[in-house]
Amino acid sequence: MKIKNSFLLHLGLFTVISLSLFPACKTTQPNRPSEQYEELFEQGISVVNIPLQFSIRELERMLNKQLDTVLYEDNDINDGDDMMVKAEKTEDITLRLDSNRVAYRVPLDIWVRYNAGIGKVEGTGAVAIELETDYEIKPSWELETHTEILSYEWLEKPRLKMGLVSLPVGFVADLLIDNFKATITENIDQQISANLKLDTLVESAWKKMHEPILVSEEYLAWMMLNPEKISMTPINIQKDELEATILIESKPQLSFGNQPKDPAIRPLPTFEYTNMGGEDFFINVGTQISYQEAQRLAQGAVEGERYEYGKRYVVVEGIELYGQGNKLVVNTTISGTYNGTVSMTGRPEYNANRNSIDIKDLNYTVDSRNFLLKSASWLLKSKFKNMIEANMDFLLEENLKDMESQIKEQLSNYELTENFILDGDLKELNIANAYLAPDGMRVDVALRGKLKVGMKKNR
Predict the structure, then answer these.
(1) Most buried residue, 77, 88, 105, 319, by CB count within 10 Å?
(2) Which first-to-last residue range defines the signal peptide (predicted)?
(3) % residues pLDDT > 90 (the chain)
């Protein structure tokens, strides 16, 4: 009996201790769903065609503006040639182009002072010089030119004056051309090198392509181009236009939220020609919206909203978003008749008609449903879940519409340099895929349109 009584005593104590512990261990909230992700996205290469179209007449205007009036000047009569010479451009230079050379005619007024032995004589004349410049693009993108005089025509041979006597001196005129033609060609090559620094322009553009671009200030949408390769088609001449196309291969990414950090700049790829070309560009953008940013947008739509069911009600205090496999978890903190959290999951799905991401089949998790059945079954019968789902559909739709209009605006008549502008048109912006990743919701956005780089028209 003592053993039995002892057993009953211990059993009673165990029961009392167990009952006293149960209230402390009792679940007052549904369990938080676990986070897990599936990496489903493999981004392809995007190609941007940037046609270059230069008017020969506009090139003439730019060259005439940039070349000094005085193309050659020799102020030392004692440097071995017994002459002082000044050559000034009197009319605009005219250009002719083909695929790998530039030909042009340069009219010049000549002033010369010549040491004739018996005294110094002066003269003036006029000459038209035909020049040709061959060019080559080096692997470093440096534009290398070589200019030479093809021929010249004396419009007025210099007449040397000594006192009141003026004599035509043909040999001095020819000596004059031989004396300064190397300097004129070098001057033109130097001017081309100074004003058309292709390597500097491409290097600067390549670095710029690595910087984040703010495409929507309201939604903090950032574009990273992530360029990988750059090439150019051979130059082609069509009537009075010089045409070529620059191709950029990249893996762009779009993100929402804080400005992304500048990535390490890839070395500029060596120059190479390509046979591809056109005006169209097609970009697949790996777009990302962080869960933090998505929560900010969702909370802006539903936080503080009151949902009623008869005499009962709840107010949304906050929302937490993250992924679980291929589903989005929506943890909602509410107060009112029921205080606590409820969890729902839904599938992100691309809606082609609305060009948006909809959260489909949003339902309570098993744990939340079972908990609510015991403590707040009325909430399961209300339209609370439907109202939350309706406010999950806007996450990308408004961002992309805003981004589309801003990209269109930026592509219109964008000034690249003093002489060149970029003009383009975004024809289409669509989402091709949507999935969840550890750092946010990702989608594959397709951008299609046209781009063209040309020279400013002379006004």
Answers:
(1) 319
(2) 1-23
(3) 13
The CA distances from residue 410 to 95, 213, 215, 283, 305, in Å, are 33, 11, 9, 16, 37
Delimit the domains of the chain by residue range.
Answer: 29-44+209-459, 56-196
- Residue 212 CA to residue 226 CA, distance in Å, equals 9
pLDDT at residue 269 in the model: 93
Residue among 91, 95, 116, 112 at smallest CA distance from 104: 95
Per-residue model confidence as pLDDT tens digits over 178-194: 777 777 788 778 777 77
Number of Cβ within 10 Å of residue 233's Cβ equals: 19
Please answer whether residues 230 and 250 qualify as being in contact, where contact means their C-beta atoms are separated by less than 8 angstroms.
no
Residue 445 to residue 8: CA distance in whole angstroms:
71
Helix (H) or strand (E) holding 427: strand 420-437
Q: Provide the H-helix boundaries in 331-447.
A: 366-375, 377-381, 384-390, 397-410
Where is pLDDT greater, at 393 or 147?
147
Assigned token pair, 306: 């009151």
Residues 395, 441 contacting (CB under 8 angstroms): yes
User: Each residue of 396-453: pLDDT tens digit?
Assistant: 555 566 667 767 776 677 666 566 676 777 777 776 667 888 878 777 777 777 766 6
Of the candidates 429, 425, 431, 427, which has an alpha carbon nearest to the alpha carbon of residue 411? 425
CATH of domain 56-196: 3.15.10
φ and ψ at residue 285, rounded to 5 degrees: -105, 125
